[in-house]
What we know:
This protein has helices spanning 2-9, 99-107, 152-157, and strands spanning 31-32, 47-48, 50-51, 67-75, 91-96, 111-119, 131-138, 143-148, 162-172. With 180 residues, the protein is of the alpha+beta class. The protein has a domain at 50-172. It is globular, with a radius of gyration of 16 Å.
Amino acid sequence: MPQQGRAAITAQLLPFPVGASSGTFYSVVGNFIPGFNDFPDTFYRPAAEVWIFSTFVNPANPSVELKPLYRLSWRCGDGAQSVCPSNPNHVSHFYTADLSEAQAYLSGGFSFDAIEGYVYPVDQPQPAGTIALIRAYSSSRDGYAMFPADLQSSYASQGYTLIPATVGYVYRNTGSFPTY
């Protein structure tokens, strides 16, 4: 979502580390978004690895709704985690399109942040031209990463090898708008 992307690159993506007045700066990754220049008040041009939808309406099959992509977070100070003594400003984001999984993480101490957008559901046939959106965990970083399936080996080399899951199907951002 543009507002989430702008918040991330200006260190305003909630939650902030406990006691901080701003958060962590995130990098812009992926191909540029056609038709957009810099985010207002920044020097960053919007980019993304994948396209997600801003509505639950499924363009490939209107009788099957798209799934919301929930963003949950946890931060040091909200509970005990092994990484906190060495990194007390740590914040972890978790994404899922499964309501039951979101509820389980909420029960485990995560907080609900936002619905980032919508993705094709994994319990339906994969639409033509889409790619799996993968989530994996790194124990050394105590955090999750989201990435298109064709980048899985790259993320695995960075330690994101635990609990891999397909969250939904999305269009890869190749630098132009997807067609469906």
